[in-house]
Design a protein that fits this description.
This protein is α+β, with helices and mostly antiparallel strands. The protein has a single domain, classed as Histidine kinase-like ATPase, C-terminal domain (Heat Shock Protein 90). The chain has 5 helices and 7 strands, in the order H-E-H-E-E-H-E-E-H-H-E-E. Strand 4 and strand 5 form a beta hairpin. The N and C termini lie far apart (32 Å). About 7% of the residues have low confidence.
Length: 182
C-alpha cells in the first residue's frame, strides 16, 4: 500500500506545472550509479554500460534517478535473470540519448502503444512478486518525468528479441553550461 501511495503522490507532483526547477545535472554519474545499484540487486545479470563522461542535462536529480530506477526495474521484473542489459548514454545530433536495452521476451504488439498509459498492464494476470504496485504506474511515472524534462521517449520492442527504451533530452543551451552540476 505504501508503494502505491508513493507512486500516486509522485504522479500528482509531476502533474503540477512548475514543480522542481531544472538545474545542470551530471547524467553520466546518475547512470553509472544506477547501473551499479541494479547490478548489486541482481548480480547474476550481465550489465553493459556505455556512458560518455560528464554528460550534463538540465534536470531534477531525484527525478532522473527515479527514471533510471524504473527503467532498470522493468528489466529485472520482465526479463529472465540471464538476459543481459545494456545502458547507453551519448551525445550527438543536438540531443543527449539515454537508452536501456534488454534481450528479454519483448512486449506484445497490442501493448506497445499503451505502455506509458496510467494504470495499463500488458499482462493483467502478472503478479506483484517483484515489488511493483501492480497498477501499471511505473511507466506512467517514467513518461511524466520525461515530459517534465522536455525530453522524448521511444520504445522499440520485438517479441523474443527484447526491448529498447530511449530517452532523448535536449542539449542544454550554452549559457546553462556555466552552472555547476550536482
Amino acid at each position: 500500500m505504501g508503494k502505491l501511495v508513493e507512486a500516486l503522490l509522485m504522479l500528482a507532483r509531476l502533474d503540477k506545472e512548475g514543480e522542481a526547477p531544472l538545474e545542470p545535472v551530471d547524467l553520466s554519474r546518475i547512470v553509472t550509479d544506477s547501473v551499479r545499484d541494479a547490478a548489486a540487486v541482481e548480480p547474476a545479470r550481465s550489465y553493459t554500460r556505455r556512458v560518455q563522461d560528464s554528460v550534463i542535462v538540465l534536470g531534477d536529480e531525484a527525478q532522473l534517478r527515479s527514471l533510471l530506477a524504473n527503467l532498470l526495474s522493468n528489466v529485472r521484473m520482465h526479463t529472465p535473470p540471464a538476459a543481459p542489459c545494456t545502458v547507453e548514454l551519448r551525445t550527438g545530433d543536438s540531443k543527449i540519448t539515454l537508452a536501456v536495452q534488454d534481450s528479454g521476451p519483448g512486449i506484445p504488439v497490442h501493448a506497445v502503444g499503451h505502455v506509458f498509459d496510467r494504470f495499463y498492464r500488458a499482462d493483467e494476470g502478472r503478479s506483484r512478486t517483484h515489488g511493483g504496485t501492480g497498477l501499471g504506474l511505473g511507466q506512467a511515472i517514467t513518461a511524466a518525468i520525461v515530459e517534465h524534462h522536455h525530453a522524448h521517449i521511444d520504445l522499440d520492442s520485438r517479441l523474443d528479441h527484447g526491448t529498447r527504451i530511449s530517452v532523448a533530452f535536449p542539449e542544454p543551451e550554452p549559457e546553462a553550461d556555466h552552472g555547476s552540476a550536482t
